[in-house]
Amino acid sequence: MVLTAQEFDVVIIGGGPAGYAAALHGGLAGLNIAVVEKEKVGGTCLHRGCIPAKEFLETAAVYRTVTGAKEFGIVADPPGIEFAQSQARKQKVVDQLWKGLQGLMKKRKVTTFPGTGRLGADHLVTVDDGTELRGKWVIIASGSVPRTIPGFEVDGRLVLTSDEVLDLEHLPASAVVIGGGAIGCEFASMLSDLGSQVTILEGLPKILPGCDKDVADVVVRSFKKRGIDIRTGVTVTGHRPAADGRTTTVQFGDGEEITVEAVVVSVGRRPLSEELGLQGTAVEVDERGFVKVDDHLRTGEPGVFACGDIVATPQLAHVGFAEGMLAIDQMLGDDVVPVDYTKVPWCIYCHPEVAFAGLSEEAAREAGYDVVTKKDPYGGNGRALIVGEPDGLVKVICEKTADGKAGRILGVHMVGPWVTEQLGQAYLSVNWEATPQEVAPFVQPHPTLSETFGETILALTGRGLHVG
Ligand code: FAD
Fold it and tell me: Where is the FAD/NAD(P)-binding domain (predicted)?
């Protein structure tokens, strides 16, 4: 039997944020789109990443709020945790979004093919059930999976990655988190707030690499105050499960050991390129497994793009969205501007939250800029005191002008209450390459947490209202 490939404008391998953003954007523009997805559309972000992780962090926030209710004169029973209910709520949120996404894809006339897709010559994508699809264009958006480390085989019981943490049936009384990056810090914060005794083991000299030092220092102080043990500059060498299988002893540093109920391996994510086929194509994969692309996300094969975690750009869902749409815009013949990865927004939802766009002070200096910086703590912000979250600060990094004043805003780095929701105007300022003089006249509503950003900007013009 000779199979004839089904023809589409675009065939997308992978239905995570990068793949589904491309599908929705292309579908809206009238392109005939096929998505091949081996698990569930929504990808890591919806099923094993952003959404379930943030839902659990919100559970932790509710627990913190109830625990601290007495300060507000609210009398509540000492809170307890019914983790099965927390899991059920997380799943409800995920499922509702999943249903919505499937409905939207249908509405945009996107055809979804279940299975693993492999790309061969002439834009032919073969699904593992034998279905053949040919796209005028193809987008590779196969995403990433958690990295593991030798000696820490994931068993879903004692050794977990983010995939297993989000499916836990009960909370461990103690945990080691290997890796103090964004995801590691989110899990450490969540587990600690929900009552686990947490130790972070980080190989680098500080946690949250990439964050401004003043910002990371606030998180470190808060974590330590809440009893999270942070050990930096240490390497883990292995672990030894107890005979009863209920705990394991992790070896690290200079012969040190710690016994815990769970080890969370959070050492980054690797691109999932090994199932892509690619024989007979000019698509290249680098030594780390990333699909090679130019700044327009074009692979070596004409008409084949790659987007999201499968390319070596920041592994963020919203970067995947932007890249998926950028690929489609090129198919539509639009004039496009490549994504400026130095200025994308970053949000970390540990407590206290972190949010930034643009260069940290250290990165700006390393890049050769002479800088003027200003910090304003949330401790002086009325709303922060009202909500009982005074820890944190806003730091603005500007390029120094010839007369020594604060010029173009290079970066805004924030840590504190709800900063992930306050990043918008900071993000615009950085991306518009605005100066403090241009931003200062914009009035901030009072009393809001966002006044701290406004105050920092005003101070940079030499006319701070409350900040010197
Ligand atoms: P993925 O989401 O990994 O999707 C790829 C899809 O392709 C998957 O559904 C997979 O099943 C499918 N697939 C793979 N190979 C094939 C194949 N050959 N054939 C068919 N289907 C295939 N990012 C943020 O921006 N904000 C956050 O707060 C955030 N929190 C996170 C928290 C955690 C715990 C984790 C793990 C990640 C988090 N991320 C966050 C990162 C974010 O989830 C990823 O950057 C994003 O999901 C990448 O999107 P993607 O489409 O490139 O890949």
Answer: 8-324
